Amino acid sequence: MRFRGSLLLSSLAVFTLTLLLLASPIPVHAASMTTAPASGTVGTSIEVNGSGFAGQLATIHWDNQILLSKVPISETGEINCTIKAPSDCRGSHTIKITDDSNWTSSTASATFTLFPSITIFPRVGRPYTPITVIGNGFAFFEKDIKVIWDDTVLPITADANNLGVWSIIFNATEPNKGEYYISAFSNSTSSSEIGEHKFIIGPFAKIEPTSGAVGTEIQIDGFGFRTSEDGITITWDNQIIRCNLIAGTDGIFSTKLNIPPSTQGHHTIGVFGSDFTPKGVVPDTNFVVVSSIELQPASGNKGTKVTVQGTGFTEGETITLSFEEKSIDAKASTDSTGSFSIAFEVPQSRVKENKIKAMGSAGNSAEATFIIEKIAPPTPILLSPEEGATLEICNSVGEVFIGTAKRLIGIIVHRDSKQPGFGSSKTTFDWSDVKTEGKVSYILQIAPSNDSSSQVLIKEGLVDSEYALSQEDALPRGSYVWKVKAVDDIGNESPWAETREFGLIPMSNQVLIMSLVIPIIFIGAIVTAGILIWRMQMKKWY
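Above: the chain sequence. Below: its structure as tokens.
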């Protein structure tokens, strides 16, 4: 019986222990956490992420202070929440997560570095408005903290408390409307750490940018107007260009607009409201209009018709155009707003991006870029004949014989003594193939070497990268130069290849001798044949 009782108690203990283990699962690894960002000023939002926790609810600590409690933990042991850096002294602080599992390994921590900062209130005011500057995140009981008002150090100081907090109140002593900047410093904190904080004395309108071409979009922000003030109007050189704007409950409004057609130089943007903010209360802003041109279209090829629209020039100014610094035969005059329009056809270009410049007689100018979609083909490379080569019109006895026969037959049949000398040159001019999009042809030009501008032979539309002189191309004896250029299927021409010089002679000495002997033999053979035929005919008769 005792044995059975002991066995029963042991089984009951094992069962009870098993239930306890199931009710309280043991974490398989230690908890961990991350924070983002890892540094900032008082009030910075910090995202806290943790994993590996065993409990159901978590508590977030800042050093020894509880920031959040009863934060839910997911079934997979993860936690995600956002906290804000509380008021405290500058330096490193510990953010810690604990949960309700009571497991020592179910705790994690990370470090957050606090930097000093200031806040100002209000951000917008009238002249002599009281301004409160509050400092946070300074050192523990930091002394002699001073405020800078638009580059001027104010004659008042403050000391931080045990949490690094301090404050100073002063009046905006500047009567002029506009933007002013506030900062702070001490012996242990520099103004560069604090940065500049803007205070606006209104009513005031800020306009950005303050220069640009006609059509530039500008942002106009108004400050210091009455709560929900309506009827706010914007003028350009005293002409209304926007009206019926309404300020918010904070007296601020924002709008965007484009600069209207205007001449080059300074123009005035004015802002005024209803009876609360009449014209002249808000300072005007100067806007500088600069010259500009726009191309339509902005890309194409040789021969494309392009319209140049110009703005921001002087009234009555004469405009001329250049394409890659080469003058274009096109002119125009600007109207009363300094605008003009000119159309021209794109000339040949050998580069992709081409500068088009509009120049005015009053000294104004503007540029734009035209994109060539298909640039001119590259320059061919001359292969043969080589520089200084000597070429012969007839360079074989066979050619002399055939040429002599053709010449004699021509004289007999046509009796034309003005035909060129016999024979034809077998000279072939050869150059490299040019690779380009689409089809390409070539132009061959031969000119006297002493006057390369006076061409004696030109062949256009050659589809092959070589050309052999024919009988019709017969050239007199002399010294010549030759060159080639490529032309694509839309008329773009490459530069001429560098010229090469060659000499042309009728024939060599050997061929010259044969040219004299062969006609004599040929004529003698004809005479002999004629005599033989005559004798045979005489025998028949007798």
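The chain has a mean pLDDT of 86.
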